[in-house]
């Protein structure tokens, strides 16, 4: 028997290149996946049957669904039912034309709806054959918010323009009421019942004039017209109005300091702040509660400022507005002073009330802080710099300026017939000769005919045919020595935006009293 050797065959093959290629492929796949998952946008791939076959992790994060849940869903189930047809059309259009776009609402697992823009394109193989649809979805929430704010801003600009026009026309009417009313008042004897009645008419007209100023606070920035104001007195004067704003189910209390708190402020704007805050407090207590407005003297030192991180050392009049309403979480508190931010429903709030309050307080060199917790009410603190005694105007020392007439000729250019007549009567009753003009062109014609005699031109800023600025330029070319006094029922910011007037010009705001007009005319003519 012959022994046979047992042999084994071993084949050795170098697979280094293959392993390297596999590792490179794995690294590239990992890189692509990481890149897609790092996108803020949703990435997706549909097959030709409309099924999701690839997606990035963004869709999981946004919708709250797991990969397994998404794999078992139809893509259209992720959308609001009314928008499903849009994506179906996008798929069809992209397959035929190469690309398509649609804005839809993506519905999350917990039912939230998020506005998204989906952009889709054809997906082909290396032979150019269509194998699916590829695309991305971008969150439109921020863009929609900015678009909404822009629309709101444009609407408020339109409201501001409208309010300015209303104020102009309304102030013309009030000027006539105040003018004739004050003239009648001067003819009535002290103690006469009619004098008291006329005084009430003039008070009401003054309030109406102040109302037009407040209307414009909502629509455009205005310079602060400060006077010496006792905060306690202001709040007491506002008590009746606030009581009417607040419903019967809300208890309204005042707790005011036992000493005057004098600040330099625009009284109307501070009143507007308190009205806005009280209205917000009322809305936060739909089932009733308690609203308390209190004041006290507060002195802030360096330690306080360092500890709380706001304000600056000094003495302040502190106004607190506290309610027992629904309160706010910390996130809401961070946003309440932002323009257009509101927690109210559509049509219930503009989101401008607290932003306006913040702006007004800042204009007064003060600051406003909010403290609140959900279910525990809200406390707002307003700090206004206390007026030093030496800086406060002493009203008792103000000397009344005597009303003095003259014999100069005054050109009155006013398109409102009633106010034109009133102005003529007022000026003529104090010795002036008056030439009246009903519009800009008429004013230029009348001035050209009497250029050597006219000492002052009283020009309405906004008139038909030629505005006040154009009339002023024309008459100064004829006679550079003539004095010009502009008047208008518009606020100064509207006038300057319309007319681009210089800052150094004489101006009297409508409505004005006859004595104020006479004092202003005499002052200008005597320069």
Please explain how this structure is put together.
The protein has 527 residues and is of the alpha/beta class. It is 44% helix and 22% strand. The protein contains 16 helices and 17 strands. A five-stranded antiparallel sheet has the order 2-1-5-4-3. A five-stranded mixed sheet has the order 7-9-10-12-11. Strands 14-13-15-16-17 form a five-stranded parallel sheet, with helices on both faces. The protein is elongated. The chain starts with 15 loop residues before the first helix and ends with a helix. Residues 345-351 and 497-501 have low confidence and may be disordered.
Explain the layout of strands and helices.
Elements: H1 16-38, E1 42-47, E2 52-55, H2 57-63, H3 67-71, H4 84-97, E3 99-107, E4 113-124, E5 130-139, H5 141-187, H6 193-217, E6 227-230, H7 231-245, E7 250-255, E8 262-265, H8 267-283, E9 289-300, H9 302-308, E10 314-323, H10 330-335, H11 353-363, E11 367-372, E12 378-385, E13 409-413, H12 417-429, E14 433-437, H13 440-449, E15 454-460, H14 468-478, E16 483-488, H15 492-499, E17 507-509, H16 514-525
Parallel strand pairs: 7-9, 13-14, 13-15, 15-16, 16-17
Antiparallel strand pairs: 1-2, 1-5, 3-4, 4-5, 6-8, 9-10, 10-12, 11-12
Helix pairs in contact: 5-6, 5-12, 7-8, 8-11, 13-14
């Amino acid at each position: 028997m012959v022994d046979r050797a047992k042999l084994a065959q071993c084949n050795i093959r170098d697979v280094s290149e293959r392993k390297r290629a596999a590792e490179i492929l794995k690294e590239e796949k990992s890189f692509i996946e990481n890149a897609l998952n790092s996108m803020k946008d949703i990435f997706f791939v549909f097959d030709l049957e409309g099924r999701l076959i690839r997606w990035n992790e963004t869709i999981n994060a946004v919708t709250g669904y797991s990969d397994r849940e998404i794999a078992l869903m139809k893509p259209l189930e992720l959308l609001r039912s009314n928008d499903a047809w849009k994506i179906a059309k996008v798929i069809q259009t992209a397959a035929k034309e190469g690309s398509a776009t649609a804005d839809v609402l993506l519905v999350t697992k917990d039912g939230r709806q998020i506005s998204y823009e989906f952009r889709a394109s054809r997906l082909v193989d290396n032979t150019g054959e269509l194998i699916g649809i590829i695309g991305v979805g971008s969150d439109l929430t921020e863009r929609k918010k900015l678009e909404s704010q822009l629309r709101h801003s444009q609407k408020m600009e339109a409201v501001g323009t409208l309010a300015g026009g209303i104020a102009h026309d309304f102030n013309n009417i009030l000027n006539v009421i105040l003018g004739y009313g004050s003239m009648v008042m001067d003819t009535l004897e002290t103690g006469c019942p009619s004098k008291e009645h006329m005084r009430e008419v003039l008070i009401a007209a003054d309030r109406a004039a102040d109302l037009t100023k407040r209307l414009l606070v909502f629509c455009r920035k205005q310079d602060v017209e400060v006077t010496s104001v006792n905060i306690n007195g202001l709040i007491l004067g506002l008590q009746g109005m606030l009581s009417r704003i607040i419903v019967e189910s809300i208890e309204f209390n005042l707790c005011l300091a036992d000493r005057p708190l004098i600040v330099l402020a625009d009284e109307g704007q501070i009143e507007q702040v308190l009205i806005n805050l009280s209205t917000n407090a009322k809305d936060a207590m739909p089932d009733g509660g308690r609203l308390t407005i209190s004041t006290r003297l507060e002195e802030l030192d360096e330690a306080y400022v360092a500890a709380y991180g706001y304000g600056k050392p000094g003495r302040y009049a502190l106004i607190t507005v506290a309610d027992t309403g629904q309160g706010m979480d910390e996130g809401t508190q961070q946003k309440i002073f932002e323009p257009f931010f509101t927690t109210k429903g559509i049509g219930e709030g503009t989101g401008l009330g607290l932003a306006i309050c913040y702006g007004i307080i800042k204009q007064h060199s003060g600051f406003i802080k909010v403290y609140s917790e959900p279910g525990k009410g809200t406390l707002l603190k307003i700090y206004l710099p206390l007026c030093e005694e030496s800086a406060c105007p002493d009203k008792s020392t103000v000397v009344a300026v005597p009303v003095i007439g003259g014999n100069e000729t005054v050109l009155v250019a006013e398109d409102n017939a009633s106010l034109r007549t009133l102005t003529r009567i007022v000026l003529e009753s104090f010795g002036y000769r008056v030439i009246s003009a009903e519009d800009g062109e008429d004013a230029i014609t009348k001035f050209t005919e009497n250029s050597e005699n006219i000492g002052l031109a009283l020009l309405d800023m906004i008139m038909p045919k030629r505005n006040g600025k154009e009339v002023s330029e024309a008459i100064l070319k004829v006679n550079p020595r003539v004095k010009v006094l502009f008047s208008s029922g518009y606020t100064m910011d509207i006038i300057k935006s319309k007319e681009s007037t210089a800052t150094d010009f004489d101006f009297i705001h409508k409505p004005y009293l006859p004595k104020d007009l006479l004092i202003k005319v005499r002052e200008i003519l005597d320069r």
